[in-house]
Amino acid sequence: MNFFLTIILDGLIQASWLFIVALGLTLVFGVLKILNIAHGSFYALGAYIAATVVTMVAARSLPPSVGFVAMLISVALIASAVGLLLERGLLKMFYGRDEVVLLLVTYAVFLILEDVTKLIWGVNPIYATQPYELFGNLEFAGLYYVGYDLVLIPISAVIGFAIWFGLNRTVIGKIVLAVIHNEEMSVSMGVRVNRVYAVAFAFGVLLAALAGALTAPKISMQPGLSSDVIILSFAIVVIGGLGSVEGAAVGAILVGLARAASVHLMPQAELFMIYLIMAAVLMFRPEGLFKRETARRI
What we know:
The longest helix has 31 residues, at 2-32. The chain has helices spanning 2-32, 39-59, 64-89, 99-121, 147-169, 171-181, 183-188, 193-215, 225-240, 245-265, 270-284; strands at 137-140, 143-146. It starts with a helix and ends in a 14-residue tail after the last helix. A hairpin with a 2-residue loop joins β1 (137-140) and β2. The protein has one domain (2-284): ABC transporter involved in vitamin B12 uptake, BtuC (Orthogonal Bundle), CATH 1.10.3470. The protein contains eleven helices and two strands; from the N terminus they run ααααββααααααα. Strands 1-2 form a two-stranded antiparallel ribbon.
């Protein structure tokens, strides 16, 4: 019994931060219709910024709670600014062109950010473990876990619910959904679509960087971090359905459980299991488990 509970908890811990990353990716696609290849780089950027802030706080012998709050605030401010600058200064010049062009542009941003992180932080691993001690160790059904890992589960649930509520129960969310479903009609009704684009892209970048900040105390920051994350997040949004918040949640849980089960039962098949689930979903549901509603053209 404990063995299966271990797999479930490990899977949910994996799914928690993957859900936040995938949520940003699916939101950007839903609004801007862009498959953002650079999304993993924003995750890595958030992780590196968090590591820098945590190291500065630890050097001043401040408590871990200060480092935790400081890294979240700094990452939120910097990531939002980077997202706005990229959307206003680069992406908006390519709107209306072929989708492949935008795909190549985001791939170029990915390559640039990879080199920028190497120039700023170098190629040696960086650690920021201070916040990892914040919640101590917890016992659950006879199993011992680091409290920080378990706290990520409710944090991701709160973020997911907040975004779902914002999209479906607020005026701003209704405007964003209107742009998602029918951009031309939204323009005719006076919606400033370009402003919605900028906010949506900046918020997507913020979510990716926030996931990076939350996982920074758990991992070592080093080159190549963004590549692994973008592969997993793409798998999640393909499984769940591009543009769907609910799909991102279900896809993250499936991928998290698949990774956890593979690690415990067959480590060599970890990536294979994820691709197997993705292939099985695409065979029967090419649009993903939660297809986003589209307007029918007559």
